[in-house]
Amino acid sequence: MDIINPATGQVIDSIPSDNAASVTEKIKKLQSGQPGWFKVPLAERISIIGNFGALVRENLDNLALILTRETGKPLQQAKNEISGAHNRITHIETAAAKWLSPELLTADGPTREEIVYEPLGVIANISAWNFPYNVGYNVFLYALVAGNSVAYKPSEYASLTGLKFRELLWKAGVPEDVFECFTGGPDVGELLLEADLDGYFFTGSYRTGKYIAKKVAEKLVPVQLELGGKDPLYVMDDVADVRQAAINAAEGAFYNNGQSCCAVERIYVHEGIFEEFVEAFVSEVNTYRIGDPLDPETYIGPLTRKEQLEIILNQIKDAINLGARLETGGKRWGEKGNYLLPTVLTGVNQQMAVMKEESFGPVIGIQSVADDKEALALMKDTDYGLTAAVFSSDEDRAKDLLEQLPTGTAYWNCCDRVSPVLPWTGRKNSGLGVTLSHLGIRAFTQPKAYHLRK
Ligand code: NAD
After folding, report:
1. For the CA of 154, the nearest atom of ligand 1
2. Strand ranges in 329-429 using DSSP code E only, listed in sequence order
3. Which of 26, 166, 246, 408 is the most buried (most CB within 10 A)?
4. Within a 13 Å sphere around the CA of 415, how many CA atoms are in the beta-carbon half?
5. Ligand 1: distance of its center to the CA of 269 in Å?
6. 207 alpha carbon to ligand 1 midpoint, in Å?
7. Which of 385, 272, 4, 278 is nearest to 159 (CA)?
8. How many angstroms separate the alpha carbon of residue 313 from the centre of ligand 1?
9. Class of the CATH-defined domain 231-419
10. Which architecture does CATH list for 2-227+430-453?
11. Is the CB of 185 under 6 A from ligand 1?
12. Is the CB of residue 189 below 6 angstroms from any atom belonging to ligand 1?
């Protein structure tokens, strides 16, 4: 399998892809290793996860370089991601013992009653490329600490990073028959779907997620899906500082080139501040430096997947044909690589693909609204339900609106953020199940009810 640098189009490495025989062999190994891993005391498993975190920190520069070269993520953002993901390890160190230890519910009387949180067994973690540390850790670290073996399939666009996870987890003390990396594309994912595994944890697109859920349904094992979004942000007319609101909104839309599941994907602005907001927003976006992701000053690198360029250019074309106004960007940049100028459209509406379908790239539509009622109706007009944000100086006014939106996450005066202590979950086409928080710690377990009579 060739690994291509999206900034140059050049092959930077070539690695073996898994096949039916290697998948079978690796899964057998994971099945034999899992029971012994659950017998390792919980405190020791937690400490091994801590060792992994320390190794990642020691190797930060090299790991960031690998991530930048295979995904095109600007180097500084690669470092931010790797350092930021460490908060999952801190969460595990502080909370896992509490939520994974057996619970004694009835201590007196003839029968002691207790819950033991047993691991699921061997789980598949089929993952995405856009934030491989964050979305990977959310699953494989939490699954490991709960006593599962993990069949980790990195995205084909983040395979070198996936192989590094394996190397460092093994070095940290995770047995080699407890974590494995399966490299390859959808065909290797398919082999995992066909295997006899005890849970499927997927991060990726709605289309693939729905397919996976259907395909493994007959196994009657847990399936969790962390999928895409079309996340709205509404800027009310009472924001304390319109310019600052515009700067924050732009970051929410364009950080990591908009390739974030919870990126701001559409913006509604109260008509009273619309012009001021758009002016500040566009002038902020025009300061973004586009270029070589290895240059520490670069904010906008290439898109990771070449195919996404066409999808976004078509969304822009469709919007302009339907009457949108191009404020900035709108075309490719440079001679080589998957570059697209950050693009801002106004005069948009819900008939346009750019306001309905996930863009997953550096394009945003900004629409003027007359009042909160109109904003709410537009924010609701989506098949997705990952996050929604409201900027306002009035918490009650913002919350009144956020409460009415069917999303897993609600942001007041912030956006595009994830916290390990809060559940990460999507509604509607954005997914099924929970990672992170105490609910996400328990997601990789099955309770056993003990009735114990002397
Ligand atoms: P994708 O669905 O194309 O691929 C995800 C993974 O599934 C890859 O490892 C791929 O090889 C594998 N795969 C593809 N077809 C398969 C099949 N038939 N059987 C088994 N495995 C298969 O998604 P992507 O392009 O890697 O990621 C982008 C998407 O992920 C966006 O929609 C984004 O919003 C979403 N995402 C969601 C979250 C979240 O937490 N909700 C986080 C990150 C990304």
Report:
1. 9
2. 343-346, 363-369, 384-385, 387-391, 409-412, 427-428
3. 246
4. 34
5. 31
6. 9
7. 4
8. 21
9. alpha beta
10. 3-Layer(aba) Sandwich (3.40)
11. yes
12. yes
Q: What is the pTM of this model?
A: 0.97
Token pair of 109, please? 């009387």
**Mean pLDDT of residues grouped by 10 in the chain (454 residues)?**
97 98 98 98 98 98 98 98 98 98 96 98 98 98 99 98 98 98 98 98 98 98 98 98 98 98 98 98 98 97 97 98 98 97 98 98 98 98 98 98 98 97 98 98 98 95
Pocket flag, ligand 1, residue 425 (CB < 6 Å): no
Which residue's CA is the nearest one to ligand 1's atom 30? 204
Q: Which of 3, 203, 306, 437 best tests ligand 1's pocket when mutated (most atoms within 8 Å of CB)?
A: 203
Residue 111 has what pLDDT? 97
The span from the CA of 201 to the CA of 140, in Å, is: 9
Residue 337: per-residue pLDDT = 97
Q: Are β-strands 122-126 and 149-153 bridged in parallel, bridged antiparallel, or unpaired?
A: parallel
What backbone torsions phi and psi does residue 258 show, to the nearest 5 degrees?
A: 75, 5
pLDDT at 125: 99
Q: How far apart are CA 93 and CA 346, in angstroms?
A: 46
Cα dihedral 422→423→427→431 (10° resolution)? 130
Minimum CA distance residue for ligand 1 atom 34: 228
Residue 285 pLDDT? 98
Q: How far is the CA of 201 from the centre of ligand 1 (A)?
A: 11
Whether 81 is in the pocket of ligand 1, judged by its Cβ within 6 Å, is: no
Determine if ligand 1 sits within 6 Å of the CB of residue 151. Answer: no
Rounded CA-CA distance 271/275 in Å is: 8
In the sheet that 179-181 helps form, which strands lie side by side, from edge to edge? 179-181, 149-153, 122-126, 200-203, 223-226, 431-432
**In the chain, where the domains are located:** 2-227+430-453, 231-419
d(CA 97, CA 249): 38
Using a 6 Å cutoff on CB, does residue 186 contact ligand 1?
yes
Which is nearest to 265 in space by CA: 238, 223, 242, 234?
234
Equal CATH topology for 2-227+430-453 and 231-419: no
Report the separation in Å between the CA atom of 124 and the middle of ligand 1, taken as the mean of its atom positions: 13
